[in-house]
Amino acid sequence: MPPLPQSFFRVPVDELAPALLGCRIKRGPVVLAITEVEAYAGPEDTASHARFGRTERNAAMWGPGGRAYVYLCYGVHNMLNVSAGEPGQASAVLIRACEPVAGLDEIRRRRGGKSGVELLAGPGKVGAALELDTSWSGHPLHRSGGLSLLPGDAPRRVLAGSRVGIDFAAPADRDRPWRFAAADTAWVSHAKGLACL
To answer: Quick count: other Cβ atoms within 10 Å of Cβ 134?
Structure first.
């Protein structure tokens, strides 16, 4: 199956985020279905890494859409994001949780033998399962090979709520309903505060 075309990603970030639910992330033998995401806009979004402008770290956010943005959180967790929109918009979608589709034994090995939802319910866990590091930032996800995003089955129902872990942001940005999750799965990192769209 070919990856999603670049045109799929060149839409506003709050449109791309729910559209990613059900899509597949593939790296080698590991294939994951996306179950939970968060959208982050450009410099105007005080919760976004782009709020201080373009840096070496966040350069992949600035597009074009369809690139990986991988950053190291707390010096421990590599977090996978997908750039959205047109070049210069600096928006990206954080992949918060996934469900395994293929390569379960390899996922469990990379996650220290964990099993069940604990394997992939959290953005750092997704990064570990895919064995990512910051060298993947800028990688085109719309091309085959390495790390790619493939079509999948969209969830029948979608939940939405405010983003988590952004207490530093302005109140209006903290309240944006920009966290999205598949409703009919247990593979979600933070179910509290989510409601059906």
So the answer is: 15
Burial track 91-116 (b if 16+ CB lie within 10 A, e otherwise): bbbbbbbbbbbebeebbeebeeeeee
- What is the spatial distance between Cα 146 and Cα 153, in angstroms, rounded to a whole number? 22
Nearest-angstrom CA–CA distance, 9 and 17: 10
Q: Which two tokens stand for residue 136?
A: 């993947």
User: What is the end-to-end Cα distance of the chain in Å, rounded?
Assistant: 30
Residue 34: CA count within 13 A, CB half-sphere: 32
Segments in the chain forming alpha helices (H): 6-9, 13-20, 104-110, 123-129, 171-174
What pTM did the predictor assign?
Answer: 0.96
Place of tokens 């799929």: 8
For the stretch 1-22, pLDDT in tens is: 899 999 999 999 999 999 999 9
Q: Please give the class, per CATH, of domain 6-187.
A: alpha beta
From CA 190, how far away is CA 84, in angstroms rounded?
Answer: 23
Cβ-based burial of 145 (10 A; exposed 0-12, middle 13-18, buried ≥19): exposed
What are the structural domain ranges in the chain? 6-187
